[in-house]
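Researcher: Here's the sequence for the chain we discussed earlier.
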Amino acid sequence: MKLFLVGLMFSLMLFAGNLEAASSDSRKIKKLEERLKKLEEKEKERYKEGESEIRVYFKNGFKMRSLDNNFKFQAGGRIMHDWGFFSEDQKFESTYGSQENGSR
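Model: Thanks. This is the structure I predict for it:
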């Protein structure tokens, strides 16, 4: 019987310790939720209505940047194209005839 009572008291002590830890955890969770709410409100105030976090614009190329300038992106490069116009002079045309466009 004594062994049963000792076991019962020991298990009740463990259970009481768990209740205290649970209330401590719930207080921590509540503090974290309040902190998160404040940070979310602060983040909302950073931007105007309808304004996005990333600004996209074209200035000497396609560019993107975040409003706090922690992120920047620029797409660069060159587009090259080559043109050529050819025609036969009269001597060539009289000797060989009129030529095709050369793509065949």
